[in-house]
Amino acid sequence: MSDRFCTYRGDREGALVAYLYDDIEPAERRVFESHVATCDMCSTELAGLGVVRARLEQWAPPEPSRALTPQRAPRAADRSPARAAWYDAPTWMQAVAAVLFLGVAAGAANLHITYNQDGLSVRTGWLDAAQAPGSAVAPPEKSVAAPSVAADSVSQADLVALRETLRREIEAAASPNVVRQVRTLVADSERKQENELALRIGTLYRDFQTQRAADMARMGRSLDTLSNNTGLAVQRIQSQVPEYVKSQVRLLQKQ
Amino acid sequence: MMWTDEELVARSIRGDAESFNQLILRWERPIYALAYRTLGREEDARDICQETFLRAFRALPGFRGQAKFSSWLYRIALNLCRDWMRRERRAPIAQPPEDVDLMELAAAAEPSESIEDLIARRDLSRAVERVMATLPEEQRTAIVLKEYHGLTFQEIADLIGCPLSTVKTRLYQGLTVVRRELVKSGAMASGRPNGPAVRT
């Protein structure tokens, strides 16, 4: 076996990598195999390259931090980066964003939808409906300002029905002690939820009133300023009118 | 039912978007890996991956099956990578070492692997990445396509448009450089440091 010279006749490098990757013609494999058996240089290099392959195997690309491609066939039209980012977002995120957008938009506009004998009307703005002229004599309105209320009441009814069903099933299956414990737990849980809800509503109401008071104060100041400006303008006009009349009289007299 | 690539392509051409989605799901990881190993940056690799499928989708009606669908995809991705490198005028980026996140490592651990083994594996992965980034593009591409994507020499030759013997030479040269550099960096035991002398 020679460890200094290789006597392989042919494309040694090609045969080496072909053999290494087992991508070699059977005839060439037989020839090269018999050569490697007698060539220390080739066998050493083959072993070394085998270790290189084992090292290369350790190189793994990092897990992509988000989806590689939108999980749908692309559209024929080009997509802008912003739209691409939108499509890349998970569906739940898009739904949450849409609901938030609608909520913020409706809140910003103080949207108030009424349906009465006069038909459907949509009103926006921060004017309190109670202070609106004619509201005292307005016919009773069927408010649909919060469509989610209907949905909530339906889901509430479902929950109540579910709770009753569960209660009946538990009562049928469990001992009186367990039922008592479960009832206590449920009652505690409900009380906690009610307290928490009341607290949140209170906070929300206080924030709303504070903001409303600030808005009203700002509007009042603006109206005062407008009134002052208007008063000054009227005074200026009043002071100018006699001068104007006098000048016109003088002109007439000259004529 | 498991459709072949060719069947999914035919259905996609007839307008079945779900079939193309199947192709995406099947091939997005290999394409991302190819782009990452060519460019060395996740963000760019992801962009290349998306662009590859977008171009494939547009060009699908013209795909006549003269090559395998996967080879066709690889070609699109490689061309995009080349364009990227030409545009950026730079070699692939070897990711800089980061602090070891033990939680992340633990999550990636094989059941029988210790944290020490895992850190060693990560270090080795980075060493390989750095060495690969120093290779000329054609050698790196040959190694990536052969080693990580298992293409035959003939497929690689067809893909990059060069003779089969050239592919083998590039692969051999690339592996030899990787071997030398890994030995230098201590990631591999020293074998025979000098290249072979060939007597004809």
CATH architectural group of the largest domain in chain B: Orthogonal Bundle
SSE order of chain B, one letter for each helix or strand: HHHHHHHHH
Please indicate the count of domains of chain B.
2
Q: What is Rg of chain B?
A: 19 Å
Average pLDDT rating of chain A: 70
Describe the oligomeric state of these chains in a short phrase: heterodimer
Strand content of chain B: under 5%
Q: Order of SSEs of chain A, N→C?
A: HHHHHEEEHH
Describe the sheet with the most strands of chain B. Answer: none
Distance between the termini of chain B: 56 Å
- Stretches of chain B where pLDDT falls below 50 for ≥5 residues? 193-200
Task: Specify the overall morphology of chain A.
Answer: flat
Overall mean confidence score, pLDDT of chain B:
84
Low-confidence stretches of chain A: 76-84, 127-152
Number of extended strands of chain A: 3
Description:
The complex is a heterodimer of chains A (255) and B (200). By secondary structure, chain A is mostly helical. In chain A, 67% of the residues lie in helices and 5% in strands. Chain A has helices at residues 12-20, 26-36, 40-56, 81-88, 91-109, 147-173, 176-254, and strands at 112-116, 119-123, 142-143. Chain A has a three-stranded antiparallel beta sheet, with no helix packed on it. Chain A is flat and about 135 Å long. Chain A starts with 11 loop residues before the first helix and ends with a helix. The relative contact order of chain A is 0.03. Chain B has two domains: 1-93, RNA polymerase sigma factor, region 2, helix turn helix motif (Rna Polymerase Sigma Factor, Chain: A); 101-187, Orthogonal Bundle (Arc Repressor Mutant, subunit A). Chain B starts with a helix and ends in a 15-residue tail after the last helix. The radius of gyration of chain B is 19 Å and the shape is globular. By secondary structure, chain B is mainly alpha-helical. The chains are: A mainly alpha (255), B mainly alpha (200).
